[in-house]
Specification:
By secondary structure, the chain is of the alpha/beta class. The chain has a single domain, classed as Alpha/Beta hydrolase fold, catalytic domain (Rossmann fold). It has an 8-stranded mixed beta sheet, with helices on both faces.
Length: 285
């Protein structure tokens, strides 16, 4: 089964590569912060990589970094990566797919390695902005579930360095210019590591998020049947309102966590169109 999934994934990559410029880059020049070289290789961890995808008909200087979910234990690359990637490429937008570090490391916060990977990726994209034909102040991120939590980390806490400087790329800022958290997990205090125990009722936002001065506009998307409560997205939206930061929120009725099993004609399947319209409304696209 794993071999079949790998073959299918490669076929998707090859098919999309015919339509777009495609290149992979290591996130780090050497072993990632906090890890050891012997943890990698045969039967061990995989090095984090970013995939740069340029649309065949490039019509925008915007770039979106996509962070699939997977509970910080794996990556739902196909549905939460390939599907939105292909839509945004069709709209002339540059896409960076981030394969951040999983699974969770022992002895550190569940999101720390992935957060380090995202901060480094934002800086890497900013360093290549001229080469890739993107605006260094039109770099944002979209993430699902744990990836949504990761995007919130990147969006609200960019003024806190997640790792020590390695090279000149780390002299660049790692703030995001927009964020699209989709059914983000681990947002509320009654579900900091798993689903919410009280549907989010009466819970507060976890301390992970600083909501610092570089917190950008956000478009939050959730289902109201989600075990990772949509009240997490509502709470984030409320905090944005308090900070006078533009926000948009979509809560889909009778929709659960993860949407890969939703009917093909379900409105929730068209969420990338909502994101595109939001970009246009903000003047980003």
């Amino acid at each position: 089964m794993k071999r079949l999934c790998l073959i299918l994934s490669l076929l998707f990559v090859l098919a999309a590569a015919r339509l777009s410029a495609f290149q992979t880059y290591p996130v780090w020049p050497d072993v990632p912060p906090g890890d050891k070289a012997e943890q990698y290789g045969e039967g061990g961890y995989s090095l984090p990589v970013l995939e740069w995808w340029a649309p065949e008909n490039k019509t925008s200087d915007l770039c979106v970094i996509i962070c699939p979910g997977g509970g910080y234990g794996g990556l739902a690359y196909e549905y939460e990566g390939i599907m939105p990637r292909d839509y945004y490429l069709s709209q002339g937008v540059t896409v960076v797919m981030l394969r951040y570090r999983v699974p969770r490391r022992e002895g550190v916060p569940k999101h720390l390695p992935a957060w380090q990977d995202l901060q480094r990726t934002v800086r890497f994209v900013r360093a290549h902005a001229e080469q890739w034909g993107i605006n260094p102040e039109k770099i944002g991120a979209q993430g699902f579930s744990a990836g949504g939590h990761l995007v919130l980390m990147g969006a609200t806490t960019s003024q806190t360095n997640a790792y020590e400087r390695i090279d000149q790329i780390d002299d660049l800022p790692c703030h995001l210019n927009f964020a699209v958290p989709i059914y983000p997990a681990y947002v509320l205090t009654d579900g900091p590591d798993n689903e919410n125990t009280n549907r989010g009722e009466g819970a507060e936002i976890v301390d992970d998020f600083a909501f610092d001065e570089k917190t950008p506009p956000m478009c939050l998307i959730h289902g109201d049947g989600d075990g990772y409560s949509p009240l997490g997205s509502v709470a984030v939206y409320h905090r944005l309102r308090q900070m006078n930061i533009p926000g948009e929120i979509h809560i889909f009725a009778l929709v659960n966590h993860a949407w890969r099993n939703a009917p093909e004609d379900a409105p929730v399947r068209r969420y990338p169109e909502r994101v595109r319209d939001w970009w246009i409304e903000l003047g980003l696209l």
